[in-house]
Amino acid sequence: MHTWHRVWGIGLSLVLFYAIINSSAMAADKVPLEELLVEKGVLSKEDADRVQKTALAKWVDLLTFSGDLRVRHETFFDDNNANGTFNNGVNQHRERYRLRIGTELKMGDFTAGIRLDSGTGQQMSTNQTYTTLFTQKAIFIDRVYISWQGSRSKWLKISAGKIANPFFVLYSGDVVWDADINPEGFGENLKFSPADGVTLFLNGGQFVLNESATNNHDPWMLAEQGGISVEPTSQVKATLATAFYESLNVSGRDAASLAGTVQQGNSRNGTNLLLNNYRVLDVTAVVDLKAGPIPIALMGDYIQNLANTTTTGLKTGAATGNQGYQVGLIVGKAADAHTWELAYFYKMSQTDATLADLADADIGSGGTAHRGHIVWGAYNLTKYFQMKVKYFMTKSITPVTTAATVCGGANTNGCGDVNRLQADLEVKF
User: What percent of the chain has pLDDT over 70?
Assistant: First the structure.
């Protein structure tokens, strides 16, 4: 496709999409059908009230629905460095979408929920690429859970199933957790307010990484997090949290037995087996403040793998390391209609700083063994319709394995320095 045709097509789509969103917003002002029928004299007010009191309406009142649809243009710019090349040195363009639809059913103190997503079944992505001659695309179960929160004990919540991440995680936290990760197992959340403007919280998780039918040494992750949030004024709020994520029985596991998709990083031998365990300390901090009417969030994460690591079995000259961090700020907040935000972050994640297959999938070719800059700008045309442009400038830390599949994750062509552009249109409902 020529560049002019691509730009013209995307531009036309933007105009049409905006027109659709505006018409939908106007439709939201219309009156309910039964109210209109009463106004026209077709129904009496008593009959309309009877319709609203049917058993179906009572059942529907227990349900809540949510979801979002995102369309994305993505370009990879290969820097073609000495560490190898991404996609054989060719700049790659692709169009993608993401669809997520969820519902919750509240039954007293219990909530049952399910969310269905697009994608290809990867643990750290719900994106689907336009490809294979218009073939139908799959839908996956991304969340399915039961949670309990007592009406007299709002300070405690317990969840089980394939759950949302139960930990306090900022954008900077994707150095450990990709935003699309939904752990499988159990989560606990406790929150207390011992004084005005002060909140203490404790979060826990016990996650199954895989189930083995051949032995009783299944890989699990056991995790705890404690934190404090202080709000001295209505203009300033600071939160500090410390977490510890311990992955058990992962050393010696290969990609097929541990994770659906392998990302760059983590020390592995020539047969793709992990050489180390991961006992990750994660310190998270954020300060939210306002410069006049403009909100500003300053945030950062520091991580260190406290497990003993080995270099035995690595190729000559391979880089290792067990630390990482991400720091940055977000100015503004694209949430309501006609609001905006700008952001800048710097990320560095050494090879064995954390479990690579759960970390951010967007920087470079995903995972660990990366360092680089991230910038974005976003604008909300309406409360539910956002436009966003994001750019990654990434350098790859020297790969630590002879297995090419580890270096590129789903893309097995290499681990060169990769810059990535993402242009998104997203609708929330």
Answer: 78
The b-or-e profile of 240-275 (16+ CB within 10 A means b, else e) is ebebebbbebbbebebeebbebbbbbbbbbeebbbb
Q: Is the dihedral of CA 356, 361, 366, 372 positive or negative?
A: negative
pLDDT band of 257, cuts 50, 70, 90: low
- Which pTM value belongs to this model? 0.84
CB 113 within 8 A of CB 133: no
Kindly report the length of the chain: 429
Rounded to whole angstroms, how far apart are CA atoms 413 and 416? 9
Backbone angles phi, psi at 167, to 5 degrees: -95, 155
Confidence tier at 17 by pLDDT (50, 70, 90): low
Q: Which residues of 180-212 are buried (b: 16+ CB within 10 A; e: fewer)?
A: bbbbbbbbbbeeeeeeeeebebbbbbebebbee
- d(CA 243, CA 204) in angstroms, rounded, equals 9
Question: What local confidence, expressed as pLDDT, does residue 91 receive?
Answer: 81
